[in-house]
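User: Could you check the structure of this?
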Amino acid sequence: VKVSLLGTGTSVGVPRIGCDCPVCTSGNPRNKRLRSSVLLEHLGRSVLIDTSPDLRIQALRNDVRSLDAVLFTHSHADHLHGLDDVRAYCFGRDEPLPVYGDRQTLERIHHVFDYAFDSAWAEAVPRLSLNYVDGDLELFGLHVSPVQVLHGRLPVLAYRVGRFAYVTDCSSIPDASLQKLQGLDTLVLGALRHREHPAHFNVDQAIEMVELLRPRQAYFTHIAHDLDHEETNDYLPEHIELAYDGLVLDI
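Assistant: Sure, the predicted structure tokens are below.
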């Protein structure tokens, strides 16, 4: 399975609009972060996790020519509001594009993108089929396991595929979910900044979680402008790195 990190930034991206901090004005391309999303590719099929507001530029930058399904972690704008851009993948498609999420996310999609379900505009809108995630999924030869974690007080979904897991927007992981995240080779985990945040792991909390789960390798994502790529990597243990836009993992 090929895993491409299309975006690794927090909700406002990096650089942040109107900010002149050292990271936002950095010349290091790894300090440029679009909003977070991930593409899984397997046996000629492509599955996207979240549709960030930067989806169009992510798809062009990474040459994403086709899309077969979308998994959603939750319904916040930075993970959802690029959904209209999947219309390009619906042109010439016989069946609606399947999207998967929890009930709150599916309800939000139906509310915000109500026009996608209006047959009068069928040729000009993203055509979607909404699928409630209530257990493991088989998608084109991929066994996908949803794992519930907490984003502040909001339950959101992480996803495990084999010995890989993607856990963004997370501030705590219930015991039952910790068990589902054992035995990983690769973990991509949200780590917002050094200062604490009520709804996200900070860097030290994310390090503690990695040490608890003990994957072979971990990458931090959903990164704010507080974290310089090189300086933060120097701070991190050897088996943990900051992810960056365009990072490709073979799992």
